[in-house]
Design a protein that fits this description.
With 164 residues, this protein is mainly beta. The chain has helices at residues 2-9, 35-38, 120-125; strands spanning 16-19, 24-27, 44-50, 54-56, 61-66, 72-76, 82-86, 99-101, 108-109, 114-118, 132-136, 144-147, 151-153, 158-163. The protein is globular, with a radius of gyration of 16 Å.
Length: 164
C-alpha cells in the first residue's frame, strides 16, 4: 500500500522526466554536428532525428518563447526546468518558411500539445539537417541529467531524467 501511495504522491521517483517532443531516433548530443549543442554549451540534453514533422510539448509547461523564425521553442515547467527544443541545424536561415507554430509566448501547454509543425523535406531540400536537440538550459540546477538514447522513440517516451 505504501509504495502505491508513494507513487501517487510522486515520492521515490528517479527524478523529473522529460518526454520526447518528436518521434524518431534518440541520439546523444555528441552526435549533433553543431558544436554549440555537441559540446553542451547551452546545457545537457539529447537529440532526436525526427521521422515526423510534429513537435509536441514534452511536459506540462509554459511557453517562454517561440523564436521569430519558428525553428525553436523555449519552455519552463512549474518546478523550474528550462527546456529548449531546436528543430534542425542552421534552420534559422530558412526564416520560418517550413514551420507552422501552434503556440505563443505565455501560453500554458500540457504534455502532448502540438507546438510546431515542420516540413522536414523542405529542410533537407535546403541542404540542412533535421536533427532536433532537446536542451536543459538550467543544467547547473541538477545533480544529474540522464539521457535515454540509442533507440527509436515515440512522442512523450521518456528521453531525459533530471535529478536535483
Amino acid at each position: 500500500m505504501f509504495s502505491s501511495l508513494k507513487e501517487k504522491l510522486g515520492l521515490g521517483k528517479k527524478g523529473e522526466v522529460i518526454g520526447a517532443p518528436v518521434q524518431g531516433e534518440a541520439v546523444a548530443l555528441s552526435q549533433v554536428s553543431d558544436p554549440t549543442f555537441a559540446e553542451e554549451m547551452l546545457g545537457k540534453g539529447m537529440a532526436i532525428i525526427p521521422s515526423t514533422g510534429r513537435v509536441v510539448a514534452p511536459v506540462d509547461a509554459t511557453v517562454d518563447m517561440v523564436f521569430d523564425t519558428k525553428h525553436a521553442v523555449a519552455l519552463s515547467t512549474e518546478s523550474g526546468i528550462q527546456i529548449l527544443i531546436h528543430v534542425g541545424l542552421d534552420t534559422v536561415s530558412l526564416n520560418g518558411a517550413p514551420f507552422t507554430t501552434h503556440v505563443e509566448a505565455g501560453q500554458a501547454v500540457k504534455a502532448g500539445d502540438l507546438l510546431l509543425e515542420v516540413d522536414l523535406e523542405a529542410i533537407k531540400a535546403a541542404g540542412l539537417e533535421t536533427i532536433t536537440p532537446v536542451i536543459i538550459c538550467n543544467t547547473p540546477d541538477y545533480k544529474e541529467i540522464k539521457a535515454s538514447v540509442g533507440k527509436t522513440v515515440n512522442t512523450l517516451d521518456e528521453v531525459l531524467t533530471l535529478v536535483k
